[in-house]
# Entry
Amino acid sequence: MSKGVLYDGNRCIGCRSCQVACKSWNRNPAEDTTNKGGYDNPPRLSATTFTTVRFREVDHNGKFHWAFAKTQCMHCLHPACEGACPVGALKRDKDTGAVVYDDGRCFGCRYCMVACPFGIPTFEWDDPLPWIRKCTFCSGRLDGGLEPACVTACPTGALQLGEREDLITEARARISASPDKYVDHVYGEKEAGGTSWLYILPVPFEEMGFPALGEEAPTENPHIAMRTLPYYAGGVVVLMAGFYWLTKRKQKLSHTGDKHGKKEGVAK
# Structure
């Protein structure tokens, strides 16, 4: 058995305590979200934002109301990112269920970004020495017998840590007890072969931005990612060669211009 977290959309109040706790524990800086529009703040996951809460105003049973959904790495039972990584920089811990990243192995190919069916791994685009970043499931805290920072911070019990199978049983019990409050589906139980993070919501999952995935583990995704290598690598080479040519051409033109200027000055 491995650990998991159950997110209950009926208990979430959108306070974003989980976001703050995640930022604090991982020592990630805040993001400038000025004039980016929408209710999601920040609007998406990034190299410094490992979790965010989606806000949606939805029509449910003829009434408009707020719905929330926390997003982060799903920590798949059969991680496509792990299968796609050619150097083993991403590994799933069978005891905790955490999919952890080793930047000492990574060489920046970004196949994990292509392979992930949830679009989670993020590249540090603004860093001169960039790596892949994502939610770690607070693996260090789990190893020490603690809950993930986001779970600890939640004031309403919307996040519950436990053994994955026990959480699935709990999720089904809540749905059965209040069928009018929940969609009859436990997201993550079977999607993409199963995930450590599980969801029950009062509104359809597609309305909250969750991808519609089959039950089969995405074993094909790593192969697709690896098949793009010749094209991806070739494109990078061509792009860099183009930049090099333009730079050299500008330098040559500048050097030629200087020579002409000097000659004209001598002639005068």
The longest strand covers residues 52-60. The first helix runs from residue 17 to 26.
